[in-house]
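U., I forgot to send this yesterday:
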Amino acid sequence: MLKKIVTFLDIAVDDRGNENEVERKETVRFVYTLRTLKLYEQRTGRRFFSDYNQALQAMSEYFTGFEKVNAEEVSQEQMMQILPLLSDEKINTFLIELLPVLFAETKDGVLVQSEVTADEAENSMWLMSLVNVEMFIEVFQMLSQHQTSKKKTTKSASKK
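Result:
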C-alpha cells in the first residue's frame, strides 16, 4: 500500500458566502488488489497486464544504466535524466488510468475500492499533483513487488 499526503488548492466558502482559495492537505491511500485489476479493465476496456507490460517496458528504457531505482534514492541528476518519462504516452496513459482504481478510502476501518472511489479520485483536486517521477517509480515498485510475491507463492504452492 502507498500512503501519500497530498497538498492541493480548493475553494472554501466563508461565513459571508464568499469563496476563498485555500490550501488543503489530505492523506490518500493506494492499494493493488484483484479489485484494482477488475476496475481497470472495466473502465478502460483493455487488459491490465498488457498495458502494465507495455508501460513497464517503456519505463525500464528510461532507467537503463541506473544502479538503483528506489524512489527515495534517485538523485536530482538521475531525476532530470528520467524526466521525459512524464510525457511518455504509454507510461502516462497507464498511470493516469491506474491511479483512480488504485485509490482506496477508509470506511469503518476497512479499505474500500469501487467505481465510486475511482470516480472520486479521477475528479479530485489532488490527482494531478501525483503525476511526477517519484510517484511513477513508487507505483511501478508496488506493482512489481506484488508480482514477485505472487510468483513466489505460486511456485511454493506448485511444489506441494
